[in-house]
Specification:
The complex is a heterotrimer of chains A (286), B (753) and C (160).
Chain A lengths: L1 E3 L4 H10 L4 E4 L5 H5 L8 E4 L9 E3 L3 E5 L4 H4 L3 H6 L1 H7 L5 H4 L4 H7 L6 H8 L2 E6 L2 E6 L4 E3 L2 E2 L6 E8 L5 E8 L10 E9 L5 E9 L6 E2 L1 H7 L6 H14 L10 H22 L4
Parallel strand pairs in A: 1-3, 2-3
Antiparallel strand pairs in A: 4-5, 5-10, 6-7, 6-10, 8-9, 11-12, 12-13, 13-14
Helix pairs in contact in A: 5-8, 9-10, 10-11
Chain B lengths: L23 H6 L14 E7 L5 E7 L1 H4 L4 E5 L12 H10 L4 E2 L5 E7 L2 H8 L3 E6 L36 E9 L2 H6 L3 E9 L11 E6 L5 E5 L4 H12 L6 E5 L15 H11 L3 E4 L2 H7 L6 E9 L5 E11 L7 H8 L9 E8 L14 H19 L3 H8 L18 H10 L1 H4 L6 E10 L4 E9 L5 E5 L7 H13 L6 E5 L15 H29 L6 E4 L2 E4 L10 E2 H6 L1 H4 L3 E9 L5 E11 L6 E11 L6 H20 L30 E6 L21 H13 L5 E2 L3 H12 L1
Parallel strand pairs in B: 1-12, 8-27, 10-11, 14-15, 18-19, 25-26
Antiparallel strand pairs in B: 1-5, 2-4, 2-6, 3-5, 7-15, 8-13, 9-10, 9-12, 13-14, 16-24, 17-18, 17-23, 20-21, 21-22, 24-25
Helix pairs in contact in B: 6-7, 9-10, 10-19, 11-12, 14-15, 18-19
Chain C lengths: L3 E7 L2 E7 L5 H8 L18 E4 L2 E4 L12 E3 L12 H8 L9 H14 L5 H7 L11 H15 L4
Parallel strand pairs in C: 1-5
Antiparallel strand pairs in C: 1-2, 3-4, 3-5
The chains are: A alpha+beta (286), B alpha+beta (753), C alpha+beta (160).
Chain lengths: 286, 753, 160
């Protein structure tokens, strides 16, 4: 196994494209090094991207936040503008693991590891995040929701790396929130995760909504039917009950050591309701 | 000289204070050396190959390709550990468990091991060992294993303790029974009866330090073992027996231990490390990974328990009965027997009967876990007691006070109690501010009692006084939580000198006589007994030296306040001599001054506790939060109160984890699905509130200072206290531990329907 | 695999070592540099016993490759005391009996030190959530939290 630390994104993509056997990108390492502990782990090449400039910064432009692929979760909450604009994304990223994990893990890594239960993904999808993908033939932009294709699988081609995640600047009177269910108070993998992003008009009526569910299917689910229950409402009881039902109906969870189908379907509705209420308050709704 | 262990009431100078522990600086600086922190020159790295099948015959093992890997120095299988157990079934179980002989009995059972010059070579070799298995049907559930069509684990197991002994083998290894009176008569007298069945899932001690050792076997039959253990003398005996070594030639040095809770009183992979070292003729370092610790070192039993209790309108219990089924892993043991003994120990009963059934299953070999078998039995009994109190319309605490055991009660497991703490802890609970505090929304309060026997056992201590008057105590019981501080306090108390002049160390097996393990809460109880005895012997020696120095009769020398005094005025007003004065003259009066003690500490004193807890339940998700927790326990005499509090809080925290989230999760294939701290969920810092403690002191009449064991009882009440609290919060009886969110949510859903 | 040469700073000392590409920082500290204070409790970042501080952030050293230490600043438990003077956290842990077996203690001290450097006056809840990645099986965390609170007060100059 080789370890390389390229200085440029071009060198990184060339290394990954040029290696026949298994190669892995190393950013925070909090998923990769766990896999490396297994006796049957095989890799020809590890590409550490942290020496590439701009990978570890959050850049605010006129219309976006560009989060480099090597920015640890903990750093996201230290960026006051980002925290104010996307509190849901930041809180989701800061629920991953523990303080120690958050000092290293990245939302790009979280997205590319493609665990169905990844904490940052529902929030990113609800926010409409876009992945900036660098490859041997240049850069392309991919909506975050199109990156994970199934457990542990992404749509990235050989040689491609996500170099940044781009979040739009939020609308006026918009708010987002992420909630997850875990049995303890920290440390657990999400049994259910819900990200909600709402935009309101001056009267407090929801004009746009995105509701994304995690850990209730092989990959994150963006539930259009759930969004429809909220649009035009002020989160009245009938609206949020319909929201909960739509989320339960859209969920396709499995029974596993972390939860059952029945439990997940019931709880996803509860969390959707609560996340929507928090997003609504953050958007200025009462 | 005979040692009088009877309690003598007196004011204390050192015992009961809170000085800093002697090993603290090493532990906060990272200098303290644990099992994996020791290395020997030339040592090899060991890796163990483990079965991925829950039950299978080993048809053959081919290690030739592994042996050919560059850097591999030895490969062992069961053939390298011939059976020297001489028909001793307990010892054979240890042998078969550390490396499988004919069958693998659980997912994780060791079948071979490799020693190589580095990790990479060992790993490569492991993957080249070829094992030919014939897979057999498996059974892992305690109740399923007792069904007539269950796969039989061992054709040689015919239920013991049943008349007549069955002629067909089964998975029920033995039946035990305790009690007195006639429960049939008693139930007929009852106005109210509650009968219910309960289940508890398997949990692990969860010590943060994985098992680790360095073994070095020499061709001349001498050997050394550095190991994290709660019982280095026990390890020496077992390893010597299994390897065919003479005990005196195997020197076992205990490292600092990173948690044990009973799990490190048993030998796991150490004989394999020794066998590898013997074959390679080089030291071998063997560390279990976290996954191996869960898969292949002792969890507790999983249980299935039926309880029936009847009482009169006035609250007097007339009959109590329990049938308790406990798993022991693949080898018969006595876990159900312990459960059957502890079940009703808190109560004064006319008619009581408990039956324990030991069930073998394809899971790892069960090990002791802090008051082994008691928490599960207490869960079932204390839940039923609560339900019965509610049925009668009596307060939970008052119902227990009415039926509590006291001095003179014949216990449900046999002996008659001396002065005990169950009544006092209940009264203290009733009066405690926690009991009358207001409950918040969605909160429920629960309380429960618990009991543990505590053990004595063989103990040796050497107390040596240096020429400068400072004292070293060498003890043979491993310090798991601060006992070196407590023993130093006791020596200080007995000798009448300052705590700062005393240093307690843990001796290795070559330096002291046999010591039983640090278990059964015996660490402070037994070793303090031996320390007091050794100190009194040292005082005798010092009196003799002073008699010599003063040239007066021995009977005219007495010891008080850390000094030798001349009795009366006939010898003139001699200035008293301190330990330092006497020690300075030791070379001239007969040589170095010491006191030794080898004894069997007896009468450890049963310890009772009552816990109170408030749980908040999220009614929409089943999530629960411990809002408040109080431990009230009788310590006899708290030698170092901070460390007694620590034992109360630590035991309670383990019980809380067990009650709420910890369980072994198996798949249909009999494989353990959560062998790691991610999905085996022990409490994290944010899961718990501050844990309040109240130490009661009802002196143990069989210890000079009244000390009782304290380390174990606090894990016994939490399962029931929490289940009672949740049951009160949700209005549904919770009968399955852990009371995890899915179970709570299901109960809430049922209540709505 | 061929070895990688790494230059780094550990506890203010310049350190150089060789390591395999798949060796973790924890492996390097314990097996190559004789710094055994960081402990392996799980190897997968779930217990925090291997916690060290890297470029000011507390991390699990079992989830960092030795090669990644290149050019970084690392603090381990061995560097926490200044000469013979224990850090207030170390002193308070002993005073409050915040350790029993002590295996988790180096990790807790590293994590608590990192906490007080970003938040000198944390609430009980903030302390508990920050330390949730450090498992203790002996103490039930009560005395650990009290020790951190007391050390924080002393560092702020609040103690009477």
């Amino acid at each position: 196994m080789r370890y390389e630390r390229p200085q440029t994104i071009e060198a990184a993509t060339a290394l990954l494209a040029g290696t026949e056997a298994k190669s892995f990108v190393l950013a925070g390492g909090t998923d990769l090094l766990v896999r490396m502990q297994k006796d049957d782990f095989e890799a020809a090449l590890i590409v550490d991207i942290k020496a590439i400039s701009a990978m570890d910064t959050v850049t605010e432009t006129d219309d976006s936040f560009v989060i480099g692929a090597a920015v640890p979760s903990a750093a996201l909450s230290e960026d006051a503008a980002l925290l104010a604009a996307w509190p849901g994304v930041v809180e989701a990223a800061n629920l991953i693991g523990s303080t120690q994990i958050q000092g290293r893990c990245t939302i790009v890594g979280n997205l590319c590891n493609a665990s169905p239960a990844a904490d940052s993904v529902p929030a990113l999808v609800a926010a409409g995040a876009v992945a900036r993908v660098a490859g041997p033939s240049g850069t392309r932009e991919v909506p975050a929701i199109e990156i994970p294709t199934g457990p542990g699988k992404t749509s990235l081609a050989k040689g491609e790396i996500i170099e940044a995640v781009v979040l739009p600047k939020p609308e006026a009177r918009a708010g987002d929130a992420y909630l997850r269910f875990i049995p303890r108070t920290e440390m657990d993998i999400a049994v259910v995760g819900v990200g909600v992003n709402l935009t309101l008009d001056e009267g407090g009526i929801v004009t746009a909504a995105r509701v994304a569910l995690g850990a209730v299917g092989p990959k994150v689910i963006l539930v259009n039917a759930a969004a429809k229950t909220l649009i035009g409402s002020k989160l009245e009881d009938t609206a949020i009950e319909a929201l909960a039902e739509a989320c339960s109906a859209a969920s396709t969870p499995i029974d596993d050591k972390r939860g059952t189908v029945a439990f997940r379907k019931q709880v996803v509705g509860v969390l959707a309701r609560r996340a929507a209420q928090t997003a609504y308050t953050r958007a200025g709704g009462k | 000289m005979s040692f009088d262990a009877a309690y003598q009431s007196k004011p204390f100078n050192s015992v009961g204070t809170r000085p800093l522990r002697p090993d603290g600086v090493d532990k906060v600086t990272g200098r303290a050396r644990y099992g994996a922190d020791f290395n020997m020159p030339g040592q090899l790295v060991a890796r163990v190959l483990r079965s991925a099948h829950a039950h299978a015959k080993i048809k053959s093992i081919d290690t030739s390709r592994a042996e050919a890997v560059k850097g591999v120095k030895a490969v062992v299988t069961a053939t390298d550990l011939p059976d020297l157990t001489d028909g001793d079934p307990a010892l054979f179980a240890v042998l078969d468990n550390c490396i499988a002989r004919e069958k693998v009995m659980y997912d994780g059972h060791a079948v071979a091991a490799v020693a190589a010059i580095d990790e990479n070579a060992a790993k490569a070799a492991l993957q080249l060992i070829e094992v030919d298995y014939e897979i057999l049907p498996h059974v892992i559930d305690v109740d399923a294993a007792t069904l007539p069509d269950a796969p039989v684990l061992n054709e040689a197991i015919f239920t013991q303790g049943v008349e007549p002994t069955p002629t067909t083998p089964s998975n029920v290894a033995n039946r035990s029974e305790f009690g007195h009176g006639d429960v049939k008569v008693g139930f007929a007298q009852a106005d109210f009866v509650v009968e219910r069945s309960y289940k508890t899932e398997q949990t692990h001690q969860g010590y943060i330090e994985p098992h680790a050792c360095v073994a070095s076997c020499n061709p001349d039959g001498t050997a050394e073992l550095w190991v994290c253990t709660q019982g280095h003398f026990v390890y020496r005996q077992i390893c010597a027996d299994l390897l065919g070594l003479e005990a005196s030639k195997l020197r076992v040095t205990p490292s600092e231990i990173g948690g044990g809770f009973g799990g490190k009183t048993h030998v796991w992979a150490e004989p394999v490390a020794l066998a590898l070292s013997r074959k390679a003729n080089r030291p071998v370092k063997l560390i279990m990974s976290r996954e191996e610790v869960f898969r292949a070192s002792g969890p507790t039993s999983a249980t299935s328990i039926d309880v029936k209790i009847g009482a009169k309108q006035d609250g007097t219990i007339t009959a109590a009965e329990a049938t308790l089924r406990y798993t022991s892993g693949p080898y018969a043991d006595m876990w159900a027997e312990l459960g059957a003994m502890t079940s009703f120990a808190c109560y004064d009963l006319m008619n009581v009967k408990t039956v324990g059934l030991e069930v073998v299953v394809n899971r790892p070999k069960v090990a002791a876990y802090r008051a082994p078998s008691a928490p599960m039995a207490a869960f079932a009994v204390e839940s039923t007691i609560d339900e019965l109190a509610q049925k009668i319309g009596m307060d939970s605490v008052d119902f227990r006070i009415k039926n509590a055991a006291s001095e003179g009660t014949q216990s449900s497991y046999g002996p008659v109690y001396g002065p005990i703490g169950i009544g006092p802890t209940l009264e203290a609970a009733k009066a405690h501010p926690h009991m009358s505090a207001a409950l918040g929304e969605n909160q429920g309060r629960g309380m429960a009692c618990g009991f543990w026997f505590n053990f004595g056992g063989q103990t040796c201590t050497d107390l040596n006084i240096s020429a400068d008057g400072t004292v070293t105590i060498a003890v043979g019981t491993v310090d798991v939580g601060g006992s070196r501080a407590s023993l130093s306090l006791i020596a200080a108390e007995e000798l009448g000198i300052s705590y700062d002049c005393i240093k307690a160390v843990i001796a290795d097996t070559s330096m002291l006589g046999y010591n039983d393990m640090t278990d059964g809460s015996r660490g402070t109880f037994s070793t303090s007994m031996a320390t007091i005895s050794a100190a009194r012997n040292a005082i005798e020696v010092m009196r003799q030296r002073v008699a010599l120095m003063w040239e007066i009769p021995l009977e005219d020398v007495y010891w008080e306040d850390g000094h030798a005094h001349a009795a009366g005025t006939k010898h003139g007003n001699r200035a008293p001599l301190s330990v330092k004065d006497i020690a300075a003259e030791a070379a001239n009066t007969g040589g170095p001054i010491a006191g030794h003690s080898e004894l069997v500490a007896d009468g450890a004193g049963v310890s009772f506790a009552t816990h109170i807890c408030d749980i908040e339940v999220d009614p929409e998700t089943g999530s629960s939060r411990v809002a408040r927790y109080t431990v009230i326990q009788d310590a006899g005499k708290a030698v170092h109160p901070s460390y007694v509090e620590g034992q109360y809080q630590g035991g309670a925290a383990q019980g809380i984890g067990w009650a709420l989230n910890e369980e072994y999760i198996y798949g249909e294939d009999g494989r353990l699905q959560n062998p790691g701290f991610l999905d085996y969920r022990i409490p994290v810092c944010s899961d718990l509130p501050m844990i309040d403690t109240q130490i009661l002191e009802i002196p143990n009449p069989n210890h000079p200072y009244g000390v009782r064991g304290v380390g174990e009882t606090s894990i016994v009440p939490p399962l029931a206290a929490i289940a009672n609290a949740v049951s009160n919060a949700v209005g549904v009886r919770m009968a399955h531990i852990p009371v995890s969110p899915p179970r709570i949510l299901a109960a809430l859903n049922d209540a709505k329907d | 695999m061929s070895s990688i040469a790494v230059s780094t700073t550990i506890n203010d000392d310049d350190v150089e070592f060789l390591c395999q590409p798949n060796e973790t920082l924890l492996d390097v500290l314990r097996n190559r540099l004789g710094l055994m204070g960081a402990k392996e409790g799980c190897g997968t970042g779930d217990c925090g016993a291997c916690s060290t501080i890297m470029d000011g952030r507390v991390v699990c050293s079992c989830l960092v490759l030795g090669a990644e230490a290149q050019g970084r600043t690392i603090e381990t438990i061995e560097g926490m005391a200044k000469g013979s003077e224990l850090h207030p956290l170390q002193r308070k842990f002993i005073e409050h009996a915040a350790l029993q077996c002590g295996i988790c203690t180096p990790g807790f001290l590293m994590a608590a030190k990192a906490l007080l450097e970003v938040n000198p006056d944390p609430t009980e809840s903030q302390i508990r959530f920050w330390l949730a990645g450090n498992l203790c099986r002996c103490t039930g965390y009560d005395k650990i939290v009290r020790a951190v609170q007391d050390a924080a007060a002393e560092l702020r100059g609040d103690t009477p």
